[in-house]
Specification:
The complex is a heterodimer.
Chain A: H1 7-13, H2 27-30, H3 36-39, H4 45-54, E1 59-64, H5 71-83, E2 98-104, E3 109-115, H6 123-134, E4 141-145, H7 148-158, H8 166-174, E5 187-188, E6 194-199, H9 206-217, H10 235-264, H11 270-282, H12 287-296, H13 302-312, H14 314-317, E7 321-322, E8 325-326, H15 334-342, H16 350-357, E9 365-366, H17 372-382, H18 388-401, E10 403-404, H19 409-420, H20 425-434, H21 442-461, E11 474-478, E12 490-498, E13 502-507, E14 512-517, E15 522-525, H22 528-538, H23 548-564, E16 574-580, E17 586-594, E18 599-602
Chain B: H1 12-15, E1 17-18, H2 28-32, H3 34-39, H4 49-61, E2 89-90, H5 96-103, H6 114-129, H7 136-151, E3 154-156, E4 166-167, E5 180-181, H8 183-188, E6 202-203, H9 213-225, H10 232-251, H11 256-266, E7 279-280, E8 284-285, H12 289-303, H13 309-335, E9 351-354, H14 363-382, H15 397-402, H16 405-414, E10 418-419, E11 427-429, H17 432-442, E12 448-450, H18 451-462, E13 464-465, H19 468-478, H20 484-490, H21 494-502, E14 506-510, E15 513-517
Parallel strand pairs in B: 9-11, 9-13
Antiparallel strand pairs in B: 1-8, 2-7, 3-4, 5-6, 10-11, 12-15, 14-15
Classes of the chains: A alpha+beta, B alpha+beta.
């Protein structure tokens, strides 16, 4: 046996820009790379774009998005499909600025022009091409890939003479998320040819991102290691094998973290996720460095494995740490910078803490065999008085690799929810995967709907839920001054809505649960932060602050409810008052005003 | 970018008044007070933000003549009849009975006169007669409930006595003129036996709190809309505003209107006869229609949104304050010939704002501080210009400061446009609430614009420089021309983007393109 070099490791390391070799970050070079094909997870959008370009109507399809969202990759895939090239083979030559394809199938013939990157052109050429694309006299569809800024400028220039507030409409289409369904929401028909805009920054890429990890781990490139002398103790291979052993568990856990970042912090582009995963997988270590490490390691036997794996274990690199210490160099990666903001790995509860330092196992979680040595090592380090960082590292390892043992699901749920700092993330993620309330029975839905309404009652009235009767089943919308400058112990009730008028509904297009009034007359999008806020507020956690954006959303929901339930003038003789008594209990009073006879009657 | 304003200023336009008939009713202060001469009659330092809005809406909703017909008496109108030479006036309600019922029990003890106490107790009995509750205890509870409800809508109470309290102007039934009670005089009058004897100690013409600032804002719009040759767009804008403001005042608070009418009808006998039923309107400079147009457009955006009426009124209150600040600067700039022009902003001045959290020695902190000082210096300077003073008459600069110079600082601090409230280092800033206001006022409901366009709009309406090109223009105006470019680079707008994002108004599209969206 002799040592050999695995090119695939070099390729993976070229996907992140920690070192100088970040050459494979761009789609253009990926398209020509043999490793990329196996790694690539096709975007469902490709088929939709191809269909839009090739059906009976001429269209101009614009693909825009952040750098690294996959615009060019989609365009390349479209090109391959139109040319009839196999999707799983790299291109033979680089793509030109403008590719003109004469596409045909049995019945149809069509010219499709693809502009690889309009932002690279001069402003003058951009305008010329846009004019050409929309020219009715030149038949054919166009696919234009562009960054948003240059695209907006060129379109603004082009539609100067078109009446109506075009820019606002274009911006509205750019803000539209796409998750299947028809193209109408993305189409503007005021142009000579229909303009279809897809903003890839609005595409949900969390599931695709997490799948990339599995593809990286199962990639055939690892086969090159077979026969290498360093195999038994190679840190890179040990890391890969651990991930492989954890199978789908680790993919789910990674997806949840990306879900947490996207819903609470900022969305990552696919390129950022790839870079993050690639770095976590190799720890920035090259094949040569790994071999050198094996050769130079002074540890013996099992200690040698632990020594190597500890350097680059996925659960540390993924969260931006190394051996429990912050890994400064990795903070240049967007994903790691965002993850570090949230400080994952804090203590969960006393009983979980105890399990960390005893040798009888770690409670609910079962770790892959390859990690048992490292776990024992960390356990002994963690039990020391200065072992805080090891305990954090242990918790991160348990989170990513720990598979729940039978009958310990509830402990697992507590640990995971607490680790993710979000009580509803796992449900939310599952609903997105299944396209419905798969984890909620009808009774649970009803129950959670009530929880939402009680929290809304608190926010809208300013009284706490405890001040209302426990059987409270009505939502009071009161007249509350927005400046909150004065306490209003007595509030005029404008509208009373029964809890039964509301329901929970999962919208598969928006991929969100909705709180609906009268079957959708007014809807409140229950985004993850809002769901979590409602859950926390319901369980009485103080200080669970809601970001202003969500408070504004709730205010909007309130004013919409008021608008659709506006009372008629004749109903104004009824006066409903909500008053907190001296004991704190809120009571509802109803009066009737007889203006004609000047009488005020209490019900 | 900027050019020196070398031409000699023409002040004839600046001093022409609207309505023209106001020349005949000229008061002494119109001649002796430089601030009134410049800005119109009048702004006063003691008027609070609530009272600017309350007074503006009071004039709007009150009849403008003594005809009984609502369609011709100018109720809910923004136009005034300028054809006849009469002084325009309005007929406001005083709501004394309602205030007695709602505010007397919470008013300061030493300011409650015995005759009012008697009247209050009698008023309670009158109300009780109309209640159908079975026991006296229940009746008292009902009364306390209603009082507590009304008290929730108190606008300004401070240390004032019950008659001078004001309501939050959330409905026509809560709009009332300023009423002053001359307690120190009344307490000396031993002949006072009942409510009617005390009538003479109420006054309605002091304008201490409803100090005519709201009237002035109303007149600015009246000036804009009363022009017979106004383009049809302006006519439509006026009608739309009248309709929306009416809707807001009449429909916002549902059944409370009926309750107030019920109380007032029962307490009909508690009224004041000694006060004139009308109040004369003052005047504004004719040139103010430029800022009035901006004011009207912004008011239109706020009124057309789908927000609740109370939220709209909250935004309108900020709008009124911002309009006061803007009017002061616009008009001051018209007579001040020492500064330069600002391209992209008709006001020809600028306010540079800083991140409220910015460290003290950062350039933007310093720029915002200098900017505030420059504006104050301008407002101070113009009141002392000999062009605006009638040198034949003895004038009072100190009075002028109370009606002009001091108002800017006070209002700006009250709404949070200038921080800190006390201490040194005063500077312009924008907090989340003001950014929310700017979005609501400058972007049509439902409209989306690019962030850079939003910055341009904020500059073109208020002269507020947030970054980039506008900041360079603003710096050049302040006289820091040489360092302008380098400062611009160092000014960071991330704090504004973050605040907009937190409010849910900013959407990051991609590739550094963000849009600002007014959800409506």
């Amino acid at each position: 046996m002799e040592t050999q070099r695995n090119d695939f490791i070099a390729y993976v390391n070229s996907l992140h820009n920690l070192g100088a070799d970040g050459a494979n970050a761009l789609a253009e070079s990926q398209a020509l790379n043999r490793y990329f094909v196996e790694l690539y997870e096709p975007f469902p959008l490709v088929d939709i774009v191809v269909q839009a370009l090739t059906d009976y109507q001429d269209r101009v399809v614009v693909l825009t998005g952040h750098a690294g969202d996959g615009k060019s990759t989609v365009a390349l895939d479209v090109l391959k499909q139109l040319r009839g090239l196999p999707a799983n083979e790299p291109l033979a030559h680089a793509v030109n600025e403008l590719e003109i394809v004469q596409w045909q199938n049995n019945h149809q013939y069509k010219i499709v022009s693809i502009v690889k990157d309009m932002s690279e052109l001069t402003a003058k050429t951009r305008l010329e091409w846009i004019q050409k694309a929309f020219n009715r006299n030149e038949s054919g569809s166009w696919l234009i890939v562009s960054n948003t800024g240059p695209l907006l400028n060129t379109l603004a220039e082009f539609c100067r003479h078109i009446p109506g507030d075009m820019e606002s409409q274009i911006l509205q289409r750019l803000d539209q998320s796409y998750s299947g369904g028809d193209l109408d929401q993305h189409t503007l028909s005021q142009f000579p040819k229909n303009l279809v805009i897809f903003n890839m920054a609005r595409l949900d890429n969390i599931a695709i991102g997490a799948k990339l990890l599995t593809r990286l781990v199962n990639h055939s490139g690892w086969q090159q290691c077979v026969g290498c002398i360093a195999v038994p103790t190679c840190p890179l291979l040990l890391n890969q094998q651990t991930l492989k052993a954890a199978k789908v568990t680790v993919e789910n856990r990674v997806r949840w973290i990306y879900q947490r970042l996207t819903t609470y912090e900022q969305r990552l582009t696919l390129r950022q996720m790839v870079a993050h995963l690639a770095l976590s997988l190799t720890g920035g270590m090259s094949c040569e460095q790994a071999k050198q490490h094996v050769a130079l390691s002074s540890a013996e036997g099992i200690g040698k494995d632990i020594d190597g794996l500890e350097q680059i274990i996925f659960s540390e690199g993924f969260f931006g740490y190394r051996k429990g210490q912050p890994w400064r160099e990795a903070e240049s990666l967007r994903a790691i910078a965002l993850i570090r903001r949230l400080v994952f790995g804090g203590p969960v509860a006393v009983n979980f803490e105890r399990q960390l330092s005893v040798n009888t196992g770690i409670g609910w979680a079962q770790l892959p065999e390859t990690l048992s040595g490292l776990n024992q090592c960390w356990q002994s380090l963690a039990s020391e008085s200065v072992g805080v960082r090891w305990r954090f590292a242990q918790r991160r390892m348990i989170y990513l690799f720990g598979e729940s043992t039978p009958h310990a699901e509830s402990s697992a749920a507590i640990f995971l929810d607490s680790f993710l700092q979000s009580p509803h993330l796992r449900n939310f993620d599952q609903w997105q995967c299944d396209g419905g309330f798969s984890t909620f029975s009808a009774t649970e839905q009803r129950k959670f709907c009530k929880v939402c309404l009680r929290v809304l009652l608190e926010i809208f009235s300013g009284f706490s839920a405890g001040q209302f009767q426990s059987y409270q089943d009505r939502l009071y919308l009161t007249l509350r001054r927005p400046d909150r400058a004065v306490v209003q112990p007595t509030q005029l009730v404008i509208v009373i809505l029964g809890f039964h008028q509301f329901d929970l509904y999962y919208d598969p297009i928006r991929r969100l649960p909705l709180l609906r009034f009268n079957e959708g007359k007014v809807v409140l999008e229950l985004t993850l932060p809002l769901l979590d806020y409602i859950q926390r507020r319901h369980s009485g956690e103080l200080g669970s602050d809601l970001a202003r954006i969500h408070l504004a959303q709730l205010e909007w929901f309130r004013s919409e409810l008021l608008r659709v339930n506006q009372k008629k003038q004749q109903d104004l003789t009824e006066i409903g008052l909500l008053r907190a008594g001296i004991d704190g209990q809120v009571h509802f009073y109803r009066y009737f005003l007889d203006e004609k006879n000047q009488r005020l009657e209490r019900e | 970018m900027t050019q020196k304003d070398s031409s000699k200023i023409d002040l004839t336009g600046v001093f022409t008044r609207f309505p023209a008939s106001s020349e005949e009713s000229e008061l002494k202060a119109d001649k002796t007070n430089p601030a009134i001469r410049l800005y119109g009659r009048r702004f006063y330092k003691d008027q609070t933000p609530v009272e600017y809005l309350a007074e503006f809406l009071l004039v709007f909703a009150s009849p403008k003549n003594d005809k009984n017909d609502n369609t011709t008496n100018g109720t809910y109108q923004l136009r005034i009849d300028t054809n006849n030479a009469k002084i325009p006036r309005y007929y406001p309600q005083d709501r004394v009975a309602l205030k007695l019922f709602a505010f007397f029990p919470s008013s300061k003890l030493e300011t409650r006169h015995p005759v009012h106490r008697l009247a209050y107790l009698d008023a309670l009995e009158l109300i009780k007669e109309c209640l159908t509750d079975s026991t006296d205890e229940d009746k008292n509870e009902t009364i306390r409930l209603i009082q507590s409800l009304f008290n929730g809508f108190v606008g300004v109470a401070k240390n004032r006595t019950w008659a001078t309290h004001s309501f939050l102007p959330v409905s026509t039934v809560f709009l009332a003129r300023e009423l002053d009670w001359l307690q120190s005089k009344a307490i000396k009058d031993s002949a006072l036996k009942n409510w009617y004897d005390a009538d003479q100690y109420f006054t309605g013409d002091r304008h201490n709190f409803m100090a005519r600032g709201g009237e002035l804002l109303f007149l600015q719009l009246a000036n804009l809309f009363s022009e017979p040759d106004a383009p049809p767009e302006l006519f439509e804008l006026c009608n739309r505003l009248q309709k929306e403001l009416y809707k807001m005042l009449e429909e916002a608070i549902g059944s409370i209107g009926g309750l107030v009418r019920f109380i007032e009808n029962k307490l009909e006998k508690y009224k004041i006869n000694s006060i004139k039923p009308y109040a004369n309107l003052g005047w504004v400079p004719l040139a103010s229609c430029t800022e009035a147009l901006l004011f009207a457009k912004e008011m239109d955006n706020i009124c057309m949104s789908t927000l609740g009426s109370l939220e709209k009124l909250d935004l309108l209150q900020t709008l009124c304050c911002m309009q006061v600040l803007r009017s002061l600067c616009f008009q001051a700039r018209r007579v001040d010939n020492t500064e330069k022009r600002t391209v992209g902003f008709v006001g020809q001045y600028s306010w540079i704002v800083t991140d409220p959290e910015a460290k003290i020695h950062t350039p933007i902190h310093q720029m915002a501080q200098n900017s505030f000082n420059d504006i104050e210096a301008m407002l101070y300077r113009v009141l002392r210009k000999k062009e605006i003073l009638d040198l034949n008459i003895k004038f009072s600069v100190a009075e002028g400061d109370k009606h002009g110079f001091k108002i800017f600082r006070k209002i700006a601090k009250e709404i949070g446009l200038v921080i800190p409230k006390t201490g040194s280092g005063q500077r312009f800033t924008l907090h989340q609430g003001l950014l929310r206001f700017l979005v609501a006022a400058l972007i049509k409901p439902g409209e989306r614009i690019r962030l850079t366009h939003f910055y341009q709009r904020v500059f073109s309406h208020y002269g507020i420089a947030l970054g980039g090109q506008e900041l360079a223009i603003a710096l050049a105006w302040s006289g820091n021309e040489s360092g302008g470019e380098s400062y611009t680079i160092s000014a960071n707008t991330a704090w504004i983007e973050e605040a907009l994002q937190q409010g849910g108004f900013l959407v990051e599209l991609s590739d550094a393109v963000s849009i600002v969206h007014n959800p409506g």
